[in-house]
Design brief:
The protein is of the alpha/beta class. The chain has five helices and three strands.
Amino acid sequence: MHESLAESSIAVDAVYYCPHHPDAVVEMYKKDCGCRKPKPGMIEKAKQEFNIDLSSSFMIGDRWKDVEFGKQLGLKTIMVLTGYGKGEYTYQRNAWPGRPDHICENLLEAANYIKSCCYSGTI
């Protein structure tokens, strides 16, 4: 991923992921940890490492649980309609306890939306 992005002159400061799952088959990954969503471990680590202001940050996801996770941490939320997004939006949105702050067709549209907010001062 880093190499592919670098070809387009895009730098990524860090990538965070959680390899754990309470029901994992591989024993070393079988645990209930603080970094698996909806727990905030990965966000908290990034916040500390990069001094991130969560109230000025965005959570982009293709599932309601991503949106809910972002809202719990005070992030602005964007749901993309790629991946699981279109199905969740089409068939489950009436059951959601809230709404994302914004909905975009894909990650590029989400990035452009964030860019327009940041440069226009509408955050």
